[in-house]
Amino acid sequence: MDELVLLKIHLKSLMHPLLRKTLLRIALYIAYVMLFAWIFTFIEKRDDSPHNIMERMLSGLRMDMNLKYNITDNEFESFVRRAATVAETGNELDWTFLNSMGFLFATLTTVGKA
């Protein structure tokens, strides 16, 4: 027991107090960022995948186009293919844990005037 206490005292005397304070602050900063990255991910993450959202949108569009313009399924598929070449759907960045951490590091380390 005494040897363990002596070892702790010896290790404590080896580390400069300023270094110990700096390492503690860095550890707390990283823990803070990880906590809020998890919170951002939890709040901003979507329940559906982009593929499911796209399928629902296409289904609704198909019904609307069929009712309004009375087009066949083949005509609709042709329209969708041409429209897909113009705009790509479902490629937005999702709020993953790493994206959230990157956002928080950028936010917390940005220096500017208020």
From TrEMBL:
Keyword flag Transmembrane: yes
Keyword annotations: Membrane, Transmembrane, Transmembrane helix
Transmembrane segment boundaries: 23-43
Protein's recorded name: Potassium channel domain-containing protein
Organism: Desmophyllum pertusum
Lineage: Eukaryota, Metazoa, Cnidaria, Anthozoa, Hexacorallia
